[in-house]
Amino acid sequence: MRVPGRSSTTDDPLDILEFAIASFRQGGAALATLVEIRGGAARALGANVAVAANGSFCGYVSGGCVEAAVASEAFAAMAEGRDRAVVYGNGSPFFDIVLPCGGGITVAIHVLRDVKALEGVISEVRHRRPAALWYCPNSQTVACMEPPSRARWMCGRFETVYRPRTSIVVSGQTAEALVVARIAEAAGHDVTVLSNGETCDGRDPAIDPFTAVVLLHHDLDMEGRILEHALHSNAFYIGALGSTRTHRKRVERLRRAGFSKAEIDRIKAPIGLFGPTRDTTSLALSVLADVAASRLATYA
Question: pTM (2 decimals)?
Answer without folding.
Answer: 0.91
